[in-house]
Specification:
This protein is mainly alpha-helical and 583 residues long. It has helices at 2-12, 18-36, 63-78, 87-112, 134-145, 149-162, 173-191, 194-208, 242-246, 249-259, 263-275, 317-329, 335-352, 386-396, 402-424, 469-481, 484-501, 527-539, 546-553; strands at 117-119, 124-126, 170-172, 222-224, 230-231, 239-241, 284-285, 288-289, 297-299, 306-307, 353-355, 362-364, 366-367, 375-376, 378-380, 434-437, 457-461, 555-557, 563-565.
Length: 583
C-alpha cells in the first residue's frame, strides 16, 4: 500500500519533494510500529487447528482510557511495574474459556441434569456423591464470575427446589464441606440470594454432626447425612487425615458469619486446640525436629498419636493451605493462624524442598517417618498448589524481612517451574497424576532457574483427571509477579486440555498422558467447572476488568476454588477485633 502511494505521488510531481518523502516515511514507520508493538502471546509453536488467536478486531473505542485503567490495575495487583501485553488477545482467550465451560455444562445438562456428574463418553450419569447434583453446586460461583446469568438461574432453581440432603447416605466430611458448603456459601455471597444460604446451612448442620461423638473433638471423616452418626472407614483403622480435619475452617467460618451462629466456627477451630496438645518430642524423627509439620494421619481417639508420611500431597495438602487462608479470611486479624502458617512455611522450605540430580529442579519431597526418617522423591500433581500458596503468602505478609520474602518467592518460582515441566515433558503436554524424581545426593546447590529436562523425573501414575493445582499456581505467580511467562504457560495447558480432553458431549480425563493420542477415561470431575476453568478465566482476564479484580482482591479461594469474601471488622467471627478499622 505504501509503495502504491509513493508511485501516485511521483506521477503527479515532476520531481520528488523532500518534505513529502519525509512525511510519507514517518507515516510508514509509525504504521509499522503501531501494529507490531504488541508481543505475541506465545513464541512456542502451536497446533494451527487449536490455536484460538483471532484476526485483530476493529478498533471501536479510544485506547487511552483502557491503557490508563490497565496500568492502574497492574500497579494494584503487582505492587508496581507495567508491561504493555496484548490484552485484546488475552480477552479473546478468556472468551474461549467461557465457551468451553459452556460446552462442558451443556453436556452435563443434556445427559445428567440433576445427577452428580456426567460420564462424557458413554453419556450416562454418575451419582457417586449421593445424587446431590455436585456438578451444579460446584459450578455456581464460576457461572457468576463469568456472568453466565442464565446458566446460574437455571442451576440455582434446581439446587434450591430439588436437592434434599435428608438422605441415608454416608458422606465424606471433607469433600462435602469443600464442594457443597463452600460452593453454596460462595454462590450466596456473589448473588445475594438468601435461599442459597439456607441450603448451605441445611447441609452444614448435617455435616456438623461429624464432630459429635468423637472423644477428642476431631471430626469423623464420614458422617451419615440422615442419622448424624460419624465413623472412620474400615481401611483407615480409626484414623483421620490432616485434610479431613483442617479443610473446613474457611467454609464454616463464612457460614457462621452469614447466619450469625458461631457454632460452625467454634467446631472448626476446636481442631487446633487438639493439635496444640501434641508433645513437641513427638515431632522428632531420626534426630530431625519436623515441628510444626504433621504426618498425614492422626488417631481420632487420642488426637496426639499419628502415623504416615509428612507430605504436601493428597490427604495432607489443604491443611497447610488453610493456615494461611484463614488468616487472610479474617482480614489478617488472627495472628495465631499467621504464626501457624509461618512456622509451617519455614519447615517446608527447610525439610521438604529438595533438588533433582542433574537439572536442579525444585522438588517437594515426602518425609518418611519409618526407618528413622528420610525423604521419598514422589511428587503428586496435588502438591502443585504449594508454589502458589507460597507466592500468595509472601505477597500478603508484610512482616517478613526482605530476605525471607525473596527466598520464599524464589523457591515458589522454582517449584512452579517444576510443575510446568510436568506438563511440558509429556507428549500430550498434560501432567500425570504423580512423578518420581531422581534427587541430588550432595547438598543441593543454591536455588536458581532450572534447566528444562525430563531426565530427572519419570511418570509414576499416568492418568490425568482434569486437575487445577498447577493452573492455580500459575494464576498466583502471574498475579504476584506480573511475569508474562505464567500466562503463556497457562495458554499452552489450555490448548492441550482442549485438544485432548474435549469430547463431543463435554470434557473427559485421560487414562495415560504419555500416549498420544490419549484415551478418554469417561469421567468429568466437578472441579473442572469449579476450579480448572475458573483459574484459566482469571489468568486470561485483562487487567482493566476491575469487576473481576475487585472480586479476587476481596476474596479468599478455598481448596475447591470457591471465592469467600474476606471479613470486615464487624464480623461475628472476629468480634475481638471490633472497633479496629480494616486496612
Amino acid at each position: 500500500m505504501a509503495d502504491r502511494q509513493l508511485r501516485l505521488v511521483g506521477a503527479r510531481r515532476s520531481s520528488w519533494d523532500p518534505k513529502a518523502i519525509l512525511i510519507m516515511t514517518l507515516s510508514l514507520v509509525l504504521f509499522i510500529l503501531y501494529f507490531s508493538s504488541s508481543p505475541s502471546v506465545d513464541s512456542a509453536p502451536v497446533d494451527e487447528q487449536t490455536d484460538p488467536r483471532p484476526v485483530r478486531p476493529a478498533i471501536l473505542f479510544d485506547r487511552a482510557p483502557m491503557r490508563s485503567a490497565r496500568k492502574q490495575a497492574f500497579s494494584r495487583t503487582r505492587g508496581g511495574g507495567f508491561e504493555d501485553l496484548s490484552e485484546w488477545e488475552w480477552e479473546q482467550l478468556r472468551a474461549e474459556v467461557v465457551t468451553e465451560f459452556q460446552h462442558a455444562f451443556q453436556g452435563y445438562r443434556k445427559f445428567a441434569w440433576g445427577h452428580d456428574e456426567v460420564r462424557p463418553v458413554s453419556n450416562i450419569t454418575n451419582d457417586s456423591w449421593g445424587g446431590f447434583a455436585v456438578t451444579l453446586i460446584d459450578a455456581l460461583d464460576t457461572m457468576l464470575l463469568m456472568e453466565l446469568r442464565e446458566e446460574f438461574e437455571l442451576s440455582k432453581e434446581f439446587v434450591i427446589n430439588h436437592v434434599d440432603f435428608d438422605k441415608d447416605w454416608d458422606a465424606s466430611f471433607f469433600e462435602y464441606t469443600i464442594r457443597y458448603v463452600g460452593g453454596l456459601v460462595s454462590a450466596y455471597e456473589l448473588s445475594g440470594d438468601r435461599a442459597v444460604l439456607d441450603q448451605a446451612q441445611r447441609v452444614g448442620d448435617r455435616l456438623l454432626k461429624a464432630f459429635e461423638g468423637a472423644p477428642t473433638g476431631l471430626p469423623h471423616p464420614i458422617v451419615n447425612l440422615r442419622t448424624g452418626v460419624g465413623k472412620t472407614p474400615g481401611w483407615n483403622r480409626g484414623k483421620v487425615s490432616l485434610s479431613e480435619i483442617g479443610s473446613c475452617q474457611l467454609e464454616f467460618a463464612s457460614l457462621s458469619r452469614h447466619t450469625g451462629d458461631p457454632k460452625y466456627t467454634e467446631a472448626a477451630q476446636s481442631v487446633y486446640g487438639v493439635l496444640d496438645k501434641i508433645p513437641r518430642a513427638n515431632y522428632v524423627r531420626g534426630g530431625i525436629d519436623m515441628w510444626p509439620l504433621l504426618p498425614l494421619e492422626l488417631d481420632i481417639k487420642t488426637g496426639t498419636q499419628f502415623s504416615g508420611d509428612i507430605t504436601l500431597c493428597g490427604r495432607s495438602d489443604s491443611y497447610y493451605e488453610y493456615l494461611l487462608k484463614y488468616w487472610l479470611l479474617t482480614g489478617k486479624r488472627d495472628e495465631q493462624m499467621r504464626g501457624r502458617y509461618d512456622g509451617a512455611r519455614k519447615a517446608i522450605e527447610k525439610h521438604l524442598i529438595r533438588r533433582s540430580a542433574s537439572a536442579n529442579l525444585a522438588v517437594l519431597a515426602t518425609f518418611s517417618l519409618g526407618g528413622g526418617g528420610g525423604t521419598q522423591a514422589v511428587m503428586e500433581h496435588l502438591a502443585c498448589f504449594t508454589p502458589g500458596m507460597m507466592a500468595l503468602g509472601a505477597s500478603e505478609d508484610l512482616s517478613l524481612s526482605s530476605q525471607e520474602r525473596a527466598t520464599t518467592q524464589r523457591l515458589a518460582a522454582d517449584l512452579a517451574e517444576t510443575c510446568w515441566q510436568m506438563y511440558n515433558s509429556t507428549s500430550t503436554h498434560l501432567a500425570a497424576e504423580s512423578y518420581r524424581f531422581e534427587l541430588a545426593q550432595q547438598p543441593p546447590p543454591p536455588p536458581g532457574r532450572a534447566r528444562s529436562t525430563s531426565q530427572d523425573f519419570h511418570v509414576s501414575e499416568a492418568r490425568y483427571v482434569l486437575r487445577p493445582e498447577t493452573l492455580e499456581t500459575l494464576f498466583w505467580m502471574w498475579k504476584t509477579t506480573g511475569n508474562p511467562k505464567y500466562r503463556k504457560q497457562a495458554k499452552r495447558i489450555f490448548l492441550a486440555l482442549k485438544k485432548h480432553c474435549r469430547c463431543p458431549t463435554a470434557y473427559s480425563g485421560l487414562r495415560d498422558v504419555t500416549t498420544n493420542p490419549p484415551e478418554w477415561n469417561d469421567s468429568m470431575q466437578s472441579f473442572l467447572l469449579a476450579e480448572t476453568f475458573k483459574y484459566l478465566y482469571l489468568i486470561f482476564t485483562p487487567s482493566h476488568d476491575t469487576r473481576v479484580q475487585q472480586i479476587v482482591d476481596g476474596s479468599v479461594f478455598t481448596t475447591e476454588g470457591h471465592l469467600l469474601q474476606r471479613f470486615q471488622a464487624e464480623s461475628s467471627v472476629t468480634r475481638s477485633s471490633k472497633g479496629r478499622s480494616d486496612q
